[in-house]
Amino acid sequence: MLTFTIRRLVLAVPTLLFISLIIFLLLELAPGDPMSQVPLTVPVEVREEMRRALGLGEPVPVRFWKWMVQFFWIEPQILIDNVFGTQLADGKLRVLSWQTRSPVMDIVVQRIPQTLWVVGTAYVVGILIALPIGIYSAYRQYSWFDQAGTFVSMIGFSVPPFFSGVLVIVIFSVNLGWFPSIYDTTHEVTDWNSFVVQLRQMIMPVMVLALQITAQISRFMRASMLDNLNQDYVRTARAKGISEYFVVMVHVLRNSMIPVVTVIALGVPAIFGGAIITEQVFKVNGIGQLLISSIQANDLPMVQTLAFIFAVLIVLFNLIADVLYGILDPRIRYD
Predict the structure, then answer these.
(1) CB 3.0–4.6 Å: which of 23, 159, 205, 333 could bond 282 by disulfide?
(2) If phi over 0 gives left and psi between -120 and 50 gives alpha, with beta otherwise, what is residue 142?
(3) CB 88 within 8 A of CB 81
(4) Residue 135 in 3-state DSSP?
(5) What pTM did the predictor assign?
(6) Do residues 148 and 218 touch, judged by C-beta distance below 8 A?
(7) CB 95 within 8 A of CB 71
(8) CA–CA–CA angle 43, 45, 48 (5° rounding)
(9) pLDDT digits 0-9 by tens, 227-245
Protein backbone atom coordinates (compact mmCIF):
# COMPACT_ATOMS: atom_id res chain seq x y z
CA MET A 1 0.00 0.00 0.00
CA LEU A 2 2.82 2.42 0.80
CA THR A 3 4.49 1.71 -2.55
CA PHE A 4 1.21 2.26 -4.36
CA THR A 5 0.65 5.58 -2.56
CA ILE A 6 4.14 6.86 -3.38
CA ARG A 7 3.76 5.79 -7.01
CA ARG A 8 0.43 7.60 -7.31
CA LEU A 9 1.84 10.75 -5.72
CA VAL A 10 4.77 10.77 -8.16
CA LEU A 11 2.38 10.22 -11.08
CA ALA A 12 0.18 13.06 -9.83
CA VAL A 13 2.94 15.64 -10.48
CA PRO A 14 2.99 15.43 -14.32
CA THR A 15 -0.79 14.96 -14.28
CA LEU A 16 -1.35 18.22 -12.42
CA LEU A 17 1.18 20.06 -14.57
CA PHE A 18 -0.69 18.94 -17.69
CA ILE A 19 -3.99 19.95 -16.13
CA SER A 20 -2.61 23.40 -15.30
CA LEU A 21 -1.51 23.83 -18.93
CA ILE A 22 -4.94 22.80 -20.23
CA ILE A 23 -6.67 25.22 -17.84
CA PHE A 24 -4.38 28.05 -18.89
CA LEU A 25 -4.90 27.43 -22.62
CA LEU A 26 -8.67 27.11 -22.26
CA LEU A 27 -8.85 30.42 -20.41
CA GLU A 28 -6.70 32.03 -23.10
CA LEU A 29 -9.13 30.86 -25.78
CA ALA A 30 -12.20 31.89 -23.78
CA PRO A 31 -14.04 35.01 -25.01
CA GLY A 32 -13.87 38.21 -23.01
CA ASP A 33 -11.39 40.96 -22.28
CA PRO A 34 -10.33 42.09 -18.77
CA MET A 35 -10.38 45.65 -20.12
CA SER A 36 -14.10 45.40 -20.89
CA GLN A 37 -14.91 46.69 -17.39
CA VAL A 38 -12.87 49.87 -17.99
CA PRO A 39 -15.03 52.91 -18.89
CA LEU A 40 -15.03 53.90 -22.56
CA THR A 41 -13.85 57.38 -21.61
CA VAL A 42 -10.41 56.00 -20.74
CA PRO A 43 -7.98 56.81 -23.61
CA VAL A 44 -6.65 53.97 -25.77
CA GLU A 45 -3.03 54.53 -24.72
CA VAL A 46 -4.05 54.28 -21.05
CA ARG A 47 -5.88 51.02 -21.79
CA GLU A 48 -2.76 49.61 -23.41
CA GLU A 49 -0.67 50.66 -20.44
CA MET A 50 -3.13 48.88 -18.15
CA ARG A 51 -2.91 45.74 -20.30
CA ARG A 52 0.88 45.77 -20.04
CA ALA A 53 0.62 46.24 -16.25
CA LEU A 54 -1.49 43.09 -16.11
CA GLY A 55 1.10 41.20 -18.14
CA LEU A 56 -1.18 40.73 -21.15
CA GLY A 57 1.43 42.04 -23.57
CA GLU A 58 3.76 39.09 -22.96
CA PRO A 59 3.70 35.84 -24.95
CA VAL A 60 1.53 33.00 -23.70
CA PRO A 61 4.46 30.66 -22.77
CA VAL A 62 6.06 33.44 -20.71
CA ARG A 63 2.87 34.16 -18.80
CA PHE A 64 2.27 30.46 -18.13
CA TRP A 65 5.83 30.03 -16.84
CA LYS A 66 5.48 33.07 -14.56
CA TRP A 67 2.23 31.70 -13.15
CA MET A 68 3.85 28.31 -12.47
CA VAL A 69 6.81 29.91 -10.67
CA GLN A 70 4.52 32.10 -8.60
CA PHE A 71 2.09 29.32 -7.69
CA PHE A 72 4.49 26.39 -7.15
CA TRP A 73 7.52 28.26 -5.79
CA ILE A 74 6.59 31.62 -4.30
CA GLU A 75 3.24 30.72 -2.71
CA PRO A 76 4.72 27.78 -0.71
CA GLN A 77 7.38 30.19 0.55
CA ILE A 78 4.62 32.58 1.66
CA LEU A 79 3.02 29.70 3.58
CA ILE A 80 6.36 28.89 5.26
CA ASP A 81 6.84 32.55 6.16
CA ASN A 82 3.39 32.74 7.76
CA VAL A 83 3.88 29.54 9.75
CA PHE A 84 7.50 29.90 10.89
CA GLY A 85 7.97 33.69 10.71
CA THR A 86 10.74 33.51 8.07
CA GLN A 87 11.29 35.98 5.22
CA LEU A 88 11.83 33.69 2.24
CA ALA A 89 9.35 35.45 -0.07
CA ASP A 90 9.98 39.10 0.84
CA GLY A 91 9.73 41.30 -2.24
CA LYS A 92 8.70 38.50 -4.60
CA LEU A 93 5.75 38.99 -6.93
CA ARG A 94 2.79 36.75 -6.16
CA VAL A 95 -0.20 35.71 -8.28
CA LEU A 96 -2.36 38.86 -8.26
CA SER A 97 -6.05 39.17 -9.01
CA TRP A 98 -6.76 41.46 -11.94
CA GLN A 99 -10.00 42.51 -10.29
CA THR A 100 -8.69 43.55 -6.86
CA ARG A 101 -4.90 43.66 -7.40
CA SER A 102 -4.57 41.57 -4.22
CA PRO A 103 -2.78 38.21 -3.92
CA VAL A 104 -5.10 35.47 -5.15
CA MET A 105 -4.29 33.01 -2.35
CA ASP A 106 -5.00 35.62 0.33
CA ILE A 107 -8.50 36.09 -1.08
CA VAL A 108 -9.05 32.33 -1.33
CA VAL A 109 -7.96 31.83 2.29
CA GLN A 110 -10.40 34.56 3.38
CA ARG A 111 -13.30 32.88 1.55
CA ILE A 112 -12.67 29.25 2.57
CA PRO A 113 -14.05 29.57 6.16
CA GLN A 114 -17.38 30.86 4.82
CA THR A 115 -17.62 27.93 2.41
CA LEU A 116 -16.63 25.37 5.05
CA TRP A 117 -19.17 26.74 7.53
CA VAL A 118 -22.04 26.17 5.10
CA VAL A 119 -21.05 23.60 2.47
CA GLY A 120 -18.81 21.56 4.77
CA THR A 121 -21.50 21.34 7.45
CA ALA A 122 -24.12 20.42 4.84
CA TYR A 123 -21.88 17.63 3.51
CA VAL A 124 -21.33 16.12 6.96
CA VAL A 125 -25.03 16.39 7.81
CA GLY A 126 -25.99 14.87 4.46
CA ILE A 127 -23.68 11.88 4.97
CA LEU A 128 -24.87 11.27 8.54
CA ILE A 129 -28.48 11.25 7.33
CA ALA A 130 -27.95 9.39 4.05
CA LEU A 131 -26.05 6.35 5.34
CA PRO A 132 -28.68 5.19 7.90
CA ILE A 133 -31.48 5.85 5.38
CA GLY A 134 -29.73 3.84 2.68
CA ILE A 135 -28.93 0.95 5.04
CA TYR A 136 -32.43 0.65 6.50
CA SER A 137 -34.13 1.17 3.11
CA ALA A 138 -32.17 -1.75 1.67
CA TYR A 139 -32.79 -3.99 4.69
CA ARG A 140 -36.53 -3.18 4.61
CA GLN A 141 -36.87 -3.14 0.84
CA TYR A 142 -40.28 -2.00 -0.46
CA SER A 143 -41.45 -1.06 3.05
CA TRP A 144 -43.15 2.27 3.75
CA PHE A 145 -39.78 3.62 4.96
CA ASP A 146 -38.13 2.58 1.69
CA GLN A 147 -40.92 4.16 -0.35
CA ALA A 148 -40.71 7.39 1.64
CA GLY A 149 -36.92 7.47 1.27
CA THR A 150 -37.23 6.95 -2.49
CA PHE A 151 -39.79 9.76 -2.71
CA VAL A 152 -37.61 12.21 -0.79
CA SER A 153 -34.56 11.21 -2.84
CA MET A 154 -36.41 11.87 -6.09
CA ILE A 155 -37.33 15.31 -4.78
CA GLY A 156 -33.71 15.97 -3.85
CA PHE A 157 -32.55 14.92 -7.31
CA SER A 158 -35.29 16.73 -9.22
CA VAL A 159 -35.65 20.09 -7.46
CA PRO A 160 -32.82 22.48 -8.40
CA PRO A 161 -31.24 24.53 -5.58
CA PHE A 162 -32.27 27.86 -7.12
CA PHE A 163 -35.89 26.75 -6.63
CA SER A 164 -35.59 25.01 -3.27
CA GLY A 165 -33.45 27.88 -1.95
CA VAL A 166 -36.03 30.50 -2.85
CA LEU A 167 -38.81 28.24 -1.51
CA VAL A 168 -37.26 27.88 1.96
CA ILE A 169 -36.58 31.64 2.05
CA VAL A 170 -40.25 32.35 1.33
CA ILE A 171 -41.47 29.82 3.92
CA PHE A 172 -39.03 30.16 6.80
CA SER A 173 -37.82 33.73 6.38
CA VAL A 174 -40.60 35.76 4.76
CA ASN A 175 -43.71 34.01 6.09
CA LEU A 176 -42.54 32.57 9.42
CA GLY A 177 -39.63 34.92 10.12
CA TRP A 178 -37.59 32.18 11.79
CA PHE A 179 -34.27 32.61 9.95
CA PRO A 180 -32.48 35.46 8.14
CA SER A 181 -32.78 35.34 4.35
CA ILE A 182 -29.26 36.74 3.72
CA TYR A 183 -26.11 35.13 5.11
CA ASP A 184 -24.01 37.66 7.04
CA THR A 185 -20.41 36.85 6.11
CA THR A 186 -19.04 39.50 8.47
CA HIS A 187 -20.50 37.78 11.54
CA GLU A 188 -17.89 36.48 13.99
CA VAL A 189 -18.43 33.73 16.54
CA THR A 190 -17.08 34.90 19.91
CA ASP A 191 -19.54 33.50 22.46
CA TRP A 192 -22.59 31.28 22.77
CA ASN A 193 -25.06 33.95 21.58
CA SER A 194 -23.03 34.69 18.46
CA PHE A 195 -22.75 30.93 17.84
CA VAL A 196 -26.55 30.65 17.96
CA VAL A 197 -26.82 33.51 15.44
CA GLN A 198 -24.37 31.67 13.18
CA LEU A 199 -26.42 28.47 13.42
CA ARG A 200 -29.65 30.31 12.57
CA GLN A 201 -28.23 31.82 9.41
CA MET A 202 -26.70 28.48 8.38
CA ILE A 203 -29.87 26.39 8.72
CA MET A 204 -31.52 27.26 5.40
CA PRO A 205 -28.50 26.92 3.06
CA VAL A 206 -27.44 23.75 4.89
CA MET A 207 -30.98 22.41 4.52
CA VAL A 208 -30.96 22.98 0.75
CA LEU A 209 -27.53 21.42 0.22
CA ALA A 210 -28.06 18.50 2.60
CA LEU A 211 -31.21 17.49 0.70
CA GLN A 212 -29.21 17.05 -2.51
CA ILE A 213 -26.33 15.26 -0.78
CA THR A 214 -28.66 12.94 1.13
CA ALA A 215 -30.58 12.06 -2.03
CA GLN A 216 -27.42 11.06 -3.88
CA ILE A 217 -25.55 9.14 -1.21
CA SER A 218 -28.60 7.33 0.20
CA ARG A 219 -29.42 5.92 -3.24
CA PHE A 220 -25.86 4.66 -3.69
CA MET A 221 -25.89 3.19 -0.19
CA ARG A 222 -29.21 1.42 -0.77
CA ALA A 223 -28.16 -0.05 -4.12
CA SER A 224 -24.83 -1.25 -2.74
CA MET A 225 -26.48 -2.84 0.30
CA LEU A 226 -29.01 -4.65 -1.89
CA ASP A 227 -26.18 -6.10 -4.00
CA ASN A 228 -24.55 -7.60 -0.91
CA LEU A 229 -27.55 -8.71 1.14
CA ASN A 230 -28.22 -11.67 -1.18
CA GLN A 231 -24.61 -12.82 -1.46
CA ASP A 232 -23.52 -16.32 -0.38
CA TYR A 233 -21.34 -15.08 2.46
CA VAL A 234 -24.39 -13.43 4.05
CA ARG A 235 -26.38 -16.65 3.96
CA THR A 236 -23.36 -18.51 5.38
CA ALA A 237 -23.00 -16.02 8.24
CA ARG A 238 -26.69 -16.35 9.08
CA ALA A 239 -26.48 -20.15 8.92
CA LYS A 240 -23.65 -20.05 11.48
CA GLY A 241 -25.99 -18.33 13.93
CA ILE A 242 -24.36 -14.91 13.82
CA SER A 243 -26.75 -12.21 14.99
CA GLU A 244 -28.62 -10.31 12.30
CA TYR A 245 -27.26 -6.97 13.52
CA PHE A 246 -23.67 -8.22 13.24
CA VAL A 247 -24.29 -9.68 9.78
CA VAL A 248 -25.79 -6.46 8.41
CA MET A 249 -23.75 -3.81 10.23
CA VAL A 250 -20.35 -5.53 9.94
CA HIS A 251 -20.20 -7.97 7.03
CA VAL A 252 -22.67 -6.39 4.62
CA LEU A 253 -22.00 -2.76 5.51
CA ARG A 254 -18.24 -3.06 5.19
CA ASN A 255 -18.43 -4.47 1.67
CA SER A 256 -21.22 -2.10 0.68
CA MET A 257 -19.19 0.96 1.67
CA ILE A 258 -16.57 0.34 -1.03
CA PRO A 259 -18.46 2.01 -3.95
CA VAL A 260 -20.01 4.59 -1.60
CA VAL A 261 -16.53 5.69 -0.50
CA THR A 262 -15.86 6.80 -4.07
CA VAL A 263 -18.96 8.99 -4.13
CA ILE A 264 -18.15 10.52 -0.74
CA ALA A 265 -14.45 11.07 -1.47
CA LEU A 266 -15.03 12.64 -4.88
CA GLY A 267 -17.69 14.88 -3.35
CA VAL A 268 -15.24 16.44 -0.89
CA PRO A 269 -13.60 18.73 -3.51
CA ALA A 270 -17.07 20.12 -4.17
CA ILE A 271 -17.02 21.43 -0.60
CA PHE A 272 -14.05 23.65 -1.39
CA GLY A 273 -15.54 24.50 -4.75
CA GLY A 274 -18.57 25.78 -2.94
CA ALA A 275 -22.19 25.40 -3.89
CA ILE A 276 -22.23 28.06 -6.58
CA ILE A 277 -26.00 28.38 -6.97
CA THR A 278 -26.79 28.10 -3.26
CA GLU A 279 -24.12 30.66 -2.36
CA GLN A 280 -25.67 33.03 -4.89
CA VAL A 281 -29.19 32.51 -3.52
CA PHE A 282 -28.26 33.07 0.13
CA LYS A 283 -25.48 35.60 -0.56
CA VAL A 284 -22.78 33.45 1.03
CA ASN A 285 -19.47 35.10 0.26
CA GLY A 286 -17.64 31.81 -0.35
CA ILE A 287 -15.45 30.18 -2.96
CA GLY A 288 -18.34 29.49 -5.35
CA GLN A 289 -19.41 33.12 -5.33
CA LEU A 290 -15.76 34.15 -5.82
CA LEU A 291 -15.47 31.91 -8.89
CA ILE A 292 -18.63 33.37 -10.45
CA SER A 293 -17.57 36.97 -9.87
CA SER A 294 -14.09 36.24 -11.23
CA ILE A 295 -15.50 34.71 -14.40
CA GLN A 296 -17.81 37.69 -14.90
CA ALA A 297 -14.89 40.10 -14.46
CA ASN A 298 -12.54 38.04 -16.70
CA ASP A 299 -10.14 37.73 -13.77
CA LEU A 300 -8.03 34.98 -15.36
CA PRO A 301 -5.43 34.56 -12.56
CA MET A 302 -8.19 34.00 -10.00
CA VAL A 303 -10.18 31.60 -12.22
CA GLN A 304 -7.06 29.67 -13.19
CA THR A 305 -5.89 29.33 -9.58
CA LEU A 306 -9.30 28.20 -8.33
CA ALA A 307 -9.70 25.69 -11.15
CA PHE A 308 -6.26 24.25 -10.45
CA ILE A 309 -6.96 23.99 -6.71
CA PHE A 310 -10.11 22.01 -7.53
CA ALA A 311 -8.05 19.72 -9.79
CA VAL A 312 -5.52 19.11 -6.99
CA LEU A 313 -8.32 18.20 -4.59
CA ILE A 314 -9.89 15.79 -7.07
CA VAL A 315 -6.57 13.99 -7.67
CA LEU A 316 -5.85 13.88 -3.93
CA PHE A 317 -9.24 12.47 -2.92
CA ASN A 318 -9.10 9.93 -5.74
CA LEU A 319 -5.97 8.63 -4.07
CA ILE A 320 -7.62 8.68 -0.65
CA ALA A 321 -10.57 6.69 -2.03
CA ASP A 322 -8.21 4.05 -3.47
CA VAL A 323 -6.40 3.71 -0.15
CA LEU A 324 -9.70 3.35 1.69
CA TYR A 325 -10.63 0.51 -0.67
CA GLY A 326 -7.73 -1.53 0.68
CA ILE A 327 -8.71 -0.75 4.27
CA LEU A 328 -12.36 -1.71 3.81
CA ASP A 329 -11.69 -4.84 1.75
CA PRO A 330 -8.52 -6.83 2.59
CA ARG A 331 -8.87 -8.67 -0.73
CA ILE A 332 -7.91 -5.49 -2.57
CA ARG A 333 -4.15 -5.20 -2.85
CA TYR A 334 -2.11 -2.81 -4.98
CA ASP A 335 0.96 -4.79 -5.94
Answers:
(1) 205
(2) left
(3) yes
(4) helix
(5) 0.76
(6) no
(7) yes
(8) 115
(9) 888 888 888 888 888 888 8
